[in-house]
Amino acid sequence: MEQQEKHIPITELVSTVYCEQKYVFDKAYGDVSPKRVVEAAKAGTAEHSQFESEGRAGNRGDSRCFVATHIYGSNATQTNLLRVWRDSRLMPSIAGRALVGVYYTISPTYLSLLRKSALLSRLTAILLDRFVLFIQR
User: Fold this and answer.
1) pTM
2) What's the average pLDDT block by block, 10 residues per block, for the chain (137 residues)?
């Protein structure tokens, strides 16, 4: 019989690092945390889930990545990597923010062209694949 993989919630994993004795106690006797602690943990878990679904660090209010979303999908590893790269490498500098602004101005039009042309989409995918490999190094 195959053993089914069990996923450990991040809060459980962090609790082992944060307080090993509390983790052992909770496993043995159940979690007896005060209601406010339980509510704070739920809020933190919800916030973490939202962050995880956005799939990136940095400016969490801006998940735009038009071209990569079209090529890879909105939650694809490549799209999320490009978002992190944008937030960590481009957004801290004036020149980077200007480049991002130009991208946001041009990309909706470019996206409409991608939707009409399979060839342009494929060429863009090839270029994006190479760029993703470059920023992964």
Assistant:
1) 0.54
2) 58 60 73 71 64 48 76 90 91 92 91 93 95 92
